[in-house]
Amino acid sequence: MWIFFLFVFVLAFKVHGQYLIKGNIRAETGEVISDASVVCRSSSDKIIAYTFSDGLGKYALQIKDRGVYELEFSSLGFQKQLRSIEFSVADEEVDMDVVMPKNLIRLEEVILAKDRPILIKKDTVIFSADAFIRGNEEVVEDLLKNLPYVEVDSEGTIKVGNKEIEKVMIEGDDFFDRGYKMITKNMPSEPIDKIELIENYTENRLLKDISSSNKTALNLRLKEAAKRIWFGNVELAYGLSSKTRYELSAILMNFGKKHKYYFYSNLNNIGEDSKGNISGLIHPLVLDDAITIGNGVRAYSLLQLSAVPLNFKKERTNFNNSELLSLNAIINPRKGLKITTNGFLNWDENGFFRNSTTAVNFQGVDFINSESSELLKNTLHGFGKLRIAIQPSASESIESEMTFNKNGDSSSTNLVFNSSNMTEILNTSNTFLNGSITYTNRYNKNNVLLLTTRYIYEDIPQQYTIDQFIYPELFPQNSDVDNVGQNSGSTMHFAGIEAHLLKKQDKGHLLELKLGDQYRKDDFSSYLVLKEGRDITDRPNGYQNGLEYSSNDAYFKTKYSWKAGQFGILGSLDLHWLNNTLEWTSQMQSENPFFLNPKMGIEWAPNKKNSFKANYSFTTTNVDILDIYDHYALTGFRSFSKGTPSFNQLDASNLLISYQFGNWSDKFFVNTVFLYLRNHDFFSSNTLVAQNYNLAERFLIKDRDLLNFNANMDFFIRAISSNLKLKLDYTRSDLKNVVNSSALREIVSEAYNYGLQIRSGFSGKVNFHVGTAWKKTRIATGTTNAFTDNVSFLDVSLLATNKMNFDLKTERYFFGNLDNESNTYYFVDFNARWVLQPNKLEVGLSGNNMFNTATYRTFSLNDISRYVTEFRLLPRFVLLKLKYRF
Q1: What pLDDT is stored for residue 286 in this prediction?
Q2: SS3 letters for 503-555?
Q3: 624-667 pLDDT tens trace
Q4: Residue (of 141, 260, 312) closest to 873 by Cα position
Q5: Closest among 159, 158, 180, 160 to 169, alpha carbons compared
Q6: Partners of 865 in the β-ladder
Q7: Could you give the CA distance from residue 722 to residue 727 in angstroms, rounded to a whole number?
Q8: How would you classify the pairing of strands 163-164 and 158-160?
Q9: Do residues 638 and 621 lie in contact, with contact meaning Cβ atoms separated by under 8 Å?
């Protein structure tokens, strides 16, 4: 199998890039012209290849096949130049210098960039979709994978320059915030005309050119024929194996000027998470934005039965039966009014199967636990969102948003623990309500005032039972107990109001002032009961929690950005006055601490290729409810934990240094980041470890260090029309804890991650994406344990004809600390597509897990134990697909 992959890989290099055109582009005055567009077209006017001249005016272009071609040279302010060329001799190389006369026509009348595959306008890079079509694209995600500088991982996360994008818009309108996978994984790619990559993206238009932003967003521009009409597709996939698998999906869309609709439905049992990362829509995380009040505020839950293997495709272990309906609309009833609605209903049955072995060996404690679990989970999930944006005038805006989320999970696990059969049942409900109003007034060119208020409510009750009693050592007086239950609940209220003033100075300096107040109240409870049959025999002391924790944070924040040419200084100071209250049944505590959070930073960009940033911050944060509940609560079938019943604020220092060479859109780009974090105060654990249970208690100690170095390099190799990515990451952390009444133990953990990827960008029939990543983990606690894992992949795309294409995806997993017979795993998936009627009807065939690997084993370790976990995988299946577009 791997010999075949190597053959395809070598063949791809051999048959492409056999003809070379190179030269210099200059003006009539002799000055070099950089960033000039060079486009090569075939006799049928199809774009074969393209490039841009570098800073010295040099260019080089690779052509795969012999023939007659037309070259087009264009640059803003110069007259377009056309040249013809013919290749007839193998491996021919041609030098072609071009002199471009000045264009004297007024700028607004010049149309030079109409057919350029890539156009750069200030902070926006515009890609022509037709120039990046390879023939195997079905959905938007497939098209984005072909774009230079854009990276789409196996889960559908989109990154540009190693940074995740903020959102994906359609014709300038946003449906899903960070839940953009609902679009990219389902919307067909054929209607896309342009893809706009927007740097320094600011969602609030009134903050444009005022606030600084490092966000990136994508905007999809549609072909004129796809506007103001209803279109979509229906796809049916049915299994050809003995155990039937299926998928049925339908999408219906209409994108007009005043109305936009996006309807989607999916039913499947092939492991696909049809709703994608919908948490990005329910709980969008906003970083470095003008409005952050209530950002990331959530209630807490104690128990979670399911688990997913890390660094592994979720759908391979997800035995599901999912049904999803999603209805979304954006309506502009009149000028200055926009209404956005989102709604989805999802019902899912999930099965998850896992076996694990835990070996504990430290300080005389030596035992092995074995677990075998079969989880069945039923979920009903409903979500609705309403956003209203009003523009009373050109300088004002009002945006109101209301979100409601409700889901219920009923989980049951058949568990075999050390040969004892037991059943866990967990019922969880979640109700989430979020409402906010923001008023923005740009009362003059350089000053903006924002007023924001927000309210959040979340309630998470849980009921847990286990039909065995495995803790007789903890409760020796209860000899008749045969099952255990715990009812727990977490209810959170949040309310906040904030005024934010931005004043931009004439020289570009920016002053920001924030004044606000945030109130949060948590009600937390957990009640453990020991039972004989249905009768409660005991409510053990020390295992009952009922408390109310409230915190009011009144704050004033100031930030000033000063710039002089290539040099900048950033300074900020946050003042916080807290009012914390903690109430139990019979007592109450309160405190009123005051603290400052300062930050200083510098930026230096001596030229366009080099930039340097460094900042230091000192932060004080308040503890949350999970840190201070005073009695034990069940957090797993054999795990108990509790907090420390006292107020604390945690201090930390943070140093961040980054260096960047080039920009993410350059042919060579390097980005390095160094992070040092010292927690002057942090919570560690005092744990009692026994074979049938663990008791963990938080306690506060001093000084913990975290060191991280990250480097990424992107290099476009012109000779093979491919992008090379190199990644290096090193993390070192210090931890201190107490286990089984030991002295304070120091644990040093180190992780090395390094790897490379190459993705081709050929215009021919074969393209590939190949990569490998190594991870070495080392933990030292007096003795040192270490292991190294590797993940490699090779994806090959073959465009056999204009109506037939084939994709092959392969993966290899290697685990260094497993025995040689079960430490390496191979996976092969494929997808074939035949177009019967262009843009109308097509059939396909797809296969998953073609080697029919039944299980997947992973290895991990911590400071006291070693884990080997085995997951059951979906068996091999082949789907026959039929897609109809309308």
Answers
A1: 62
A2: EECCCCCEEEEEEEEEEEEEEEEEEEEEEECCEEEECCCCCEEEEEEEEEEEE
A3: 898 999 899 999 999 999 998 888 899 999 999 999 998 766 77
A4: 312
A5: 180
A6: 360
A7: 16
A8: antiparallel
A9: no
